[in-house]
Structure formats: structure tokens, C-alpha cells
Amino acid sequence: MANDNKYVFAVNSLRFINTPQKGILSHINAGNYFYDESKKNWVKNNELFYPTDTDLVSPLTLEDAVDLELQMAMKNGINGFALLYTISRNRKILDTYDEIVNAYVEVIKKKGYDFKLMMAIKFERGVKVNEGIYDCGTHLSKIYGSTKNSNVWYKMKGKKALMFYKSKGLMSADELKSWEKSKDNELDMSAYFDRFSEITSYLSTDVSIIYNALWPGRKKEIELALDRFETVFFEKSRMLRQGKIDILARIIKSKNRPFVQTVFHSGISSYYVMKDKNKKKPQRFVMQSKIAIDDCYKEYDNLHYTRSIRDGFKSAEKNNAELIILDSWNIFIEQSHFRPSYNNGWGLSVLLKSYINEYQGKPNEESLVMSFLPYQNTDGKGFLAYKPRKNHSYKDDTYERKNIEIVTNLDKAGDLYFRNKLVKTIPAGRFVTTVPWSEGEVKAFVKRDGLKVLEIYSTKKISYSLYRNNPSKAYVSSKDPELYDEMVTMLAKKEVDFFNNRFLLPRELYNQWISIEKEKMTYYTSTLLSSIEKSDDAIGKMDKYHKKYKAKIKALLSEFNYSIWDEIINEKMEYLKPLADYDIHEFENSYNVLPAN
């Protein structure tokens, strides 16, 4: 029987919305760098993916983009978004956040979606505390006040939930140091908690605060927080310390409060580490100072493929979590996103939904998911070294380089094959199989009674990576073709509808045009995915294909309609920027396709 009281939320960064007016490209994860030894300088090495959901002659409106995010989340089994409202020195961005939040509320109400929202607050370092509190309180008051009668907001014990996701910007460095050094019986964080209360004083309604603990294993902080707030949850990096999570859960249960579990699948530290001083430095400092590649490395969380997801849901079940927070939906700069993308693949969605269904007591489909890591070549000069973060990674640092994980969820036992060779007979239920890492095709299938029941075959390949100095995982599944086709069909239809409102084509020609657009999107995507290290070759192939594509459109349309189509397409192309110009760290300069009206 399904458990309707167990919710799964995902942290949704409001900076990442797919419209030229309101956000940035979600499928181009910029900000990767390698060191050019010949020029003695860092070079931006953007990952190259075809942004099908933004490369449209008619860009998504804000409502379209919000609706797309909601539909994708619901297909993943997610029940709600924790909308990440970042308080920073860039105060003008808050009005944009307000508009996006309002769009989420209105689309959910208009479409009648069974989907909940909560606000999640993040205070960046460098914000003036008094200004930040005022900005946060006044904007929250407007958001919650204008929709006070709406049932889209998630409630705990009858009160709207408000999460303080990251709040180190509300404290001074001296305060943090004093708390770290103080004994438990001397720990006094009352001034810090008073700042939370000051923010909520702007609201006309009571809220249940979900507080992200600084030290989840420290009993005193948890007890102090529970005296003030509804519940406590912990940072994703604490996942590996299950004993401390259990202590946290016991304290919360003793207070008769709901337990919140964080689940994640990947994560990269935002900092470089200087080798000589062992000091962390922000990315911008390293780039601007032109620090040599051999003088630093980057820390990352070595989380062993799907194990972090498995451990998170197992812990949630063990401690009867009322709420699960996925960290995150779309914070791409940390590679921890659950949102489907051409970077981490669609298989993560299939894996996630199977765990959510199990957590909520819903029926599950059979599934086959593979996870692998491009081998990171960091041996020679010109390549940034990555090292697992101490105390935040699983012990075997080489696991992900040595193995490929295949996760099966079967109704009945079946034979697992990898690259046409029998691996083993897999039992019913969820089972994790590892095979040795080797370069080559992504090809696996399950046979039962002599017939293939599940199969993975993808243009994505397992390969050595010379330039992508980035330990991001890839996930592929047996449902990828179906999921991809759903997305591309929707986008192709949107593209054709833009023109067909003028042309009014017969149904047969309309369907042919949709097929042409789908073929183009699929070709571009597969070409880029198979040419990650030779992007110039990929662009050359796409240029040749584009000529054939235009010929097909010309043959489809009348001469007059084709001239209109060609004129609009050429006008659109004038506004396109080279993919290398996109930088997801620069919110103001990352608009895509067409300028705002």
C-alpha cells in the first residue's frame, strides 16, 4: 500500500531556469578548466552538449520552463521542490526570484498538479547581515503572504515549511571558530538562532523551520536547534557517517519531531587546494592569479557510484524519515544534480524513481541501470589532479576507476550480459553487480527464458578522458530511449507549432516536419556525445547535416513558406553565441538564444 505521508523533495536552484529572460542553459555545464602548458594559463573547457530544450526558434516562456521542470520532476517520482532562494550581494536578482517562485505557484494551481513547494534559504558569504535579514524577511513575506490561501505549500504540523539550507552567511568567522572550539556544555548559539527568528518575524504566518545543522553529530547543537525549530537535517557530506545520523535521528524522535533525510549521488567541492600551504582557495582566485596546475588540486567526494543513493534511502527507511531532501535537482556546478541531462544521463532518473517507489510503498517496474566514470587522465602536466575529500568519501579511492556498476531491479531472476558475455544469473529484487572498468560500448542486457527483457544500448561510451578533468558519473538505463523520445517529441512539436500557426499545414506534412526536427535533435546530440574530445569534428559534421536538414525543410514547404522559415531561422542565428561563451558562474551573462523582449 502506498504511503502518502512520505514526501520526496529536491532542492531547486532558481538560477537554473530554461528561458533567455530568466536563466541559463541547463545542459551546458561550464566552468571546467584545464591548464594549457604551452601558454602557461588556465583554459575554460566547457562540456559540450546540445541544448535541445533551449535551441528553439521560439524560446520557452517562463511558464513553459517551469511546467517542464515540474513535469520532469514528477516523472522522476519527486513530490515537491525546495526552491533555493539565494541571498547575496546581488540584491537585484531577488525580484527575478520572486517572479519565478510565483510562476511555480501559478502553474501548479492552473494545471492542478499534486506537487508541493517550500522555500529554502541560502545566505552567501559577504552579505551584510542586517541587509540580508531585511531582504530575506521582506521577500519571504511577499511570497508567503500573496499565496497564503494556496495549498501548494508543504506543511509540517499544520505550518508552512521553511528550510534554512545554507546559513553560514548569517554568522561571522569569529563566531564559527568560537563554537567549534567550545565544549558542548558551553555552546551558545542563541544569537545565531535569533537571526532566524528575526527573519520569520516579517511573516504574517507561523512556519515550521527545517534547520540544516552545522555539526549533525554534535548533540548540543541539535538540542539547541530543536528547542527553537521544528526539525533538523544534515549536510550531504555527512552521509558517510551513518552512526552520527542515527544519533541525530534518535534525538529528534525523542522530541517527537519529524526526521528529514538528505540523499545525494555526487558532489564536488567548490574549492581548489594549494599544495604548499594546504589551503583552500576559491576557483576565481586560482584562475585570476594564474596559479600553476602543479601547485594545486581539486577535492571531490568519491561516493562510489550508486552507493550514496542506496545508503540514503536505506537510512531514511531505517529511521522512518517523514521527508527526504534530494540534494539537488539542478545545481549543476557541483555535478550533484538529479535532473535528467546529457551529462549524467537519464539512467539516474530511472534509478531514483525505483527507490522513491519503494520508499513510498508503490509498485515498481523492472529496470536495468549502469553507472560508470570516464577515466580521468591527470598523470601528465596540463591536467588538474582530483583527490577525494578526507572524511567525506568512501575508503576505497580507486573503486570508481576499477569498476562499472550495473543495478538490476527484477521481478524474477534473469541472466545478466555485458558486451554479449554472460556475467551471472541475477536474483529477483534490487541487486548491484560490478564488472571491471574497460573502455568501449555501453551494452548490457538481461535475458529470461531465452528472451531479452531489458537492454541498454547508448551512443555514450565508456572512455578515457583527456580533457574533461571532472570526476562526474554517467548513468544509462534500459528506459533511456523512451525517456529521450518523450523529451525530443515535445520539443520538436513546439518548434513546428511555432511555424505551423502561420502555415497551417496538412496533418501529413505537419507530422513529417516533426519527424525531421526529431531526427535533427537526435543527430546533434549523438554526434556531440560521441565526439566529446573532438568538438571541432562534431561541429563540422553538424554543419554538413544542417545543409541536408534545410534541404528537407525546403522540399516539405511551399516556396513562400520556406522563405519565411529561412528568414526567421537566420534572424535567430544572429543572436546565438558560441557554446564556449556560456559560463554558469555568470548569471547575468548567460542568457541564451534570443534577447528578452
How would you briefly describe this protein structure?
The chain is about 35% helix and about 25% strand. It has helices at about 60-75, 95-110, 130-145, 175-180, 190-200, 220-230, 240-255, 285-290, 305-320, 345-360, 400, 480-505, 505-530, 535-555, 560-575, and strands at about 5-15, 35, 40-45, 80-85, 115-125, 155, 160-165, 205-210, 230-235, 260-265, 270-275, 280, 295-300, 325, 365-370, 375, 385-390, 405-410, 415-420, 420-425, 430-435, 440-450, 450-460, 465, 475.
Tell me about this structure.
Helix 6 (219-228) links the parallel strand 8 and strand 9. Residues 24-32, 45-54 and 574-597 have low confidence and may be disordered. This protein has 597 residues and is an alpha/beta fold. The chain is globular and about 80 Å long. The chain has helices at 62-75, 93-111, 129-146, 173-181, 190-200, 219-228, 242-254, 283-288, 307-318, 347-359, 399-402, 480-503, 507-529, 535-556, 559-575; strands spanning 7-13, 33-36, 41-44, 80-87, 116-123, 155-156, 159-166, 207-212, 231-233, 260-263, 268-274, 279-282, 296-300, 323-326, 367-372, 375-376, 385-388, 403-410, 414-418, 421-426, 429-436, 440-448, 451-462, 464-465, 474-477. The N and C termini lie far apart (50 Å). Helix 2 (93-111) runs parallel beside helix 3 and helix 6 (219-228) runs parallel beside helix 7. Strands 1, 4, 5, 6, 7, 8, 9, 10 and 14 form a nine-stranded mixed beta sheet that branches. A four-stranded mixed beta sheet has the order 12-11-13-17. Strands 21-18-15-25 form a four-stranded antiparallel beta sheet. The longest helix is centred in the C-terminal third of the chain and has 24 residues, at 480-503.
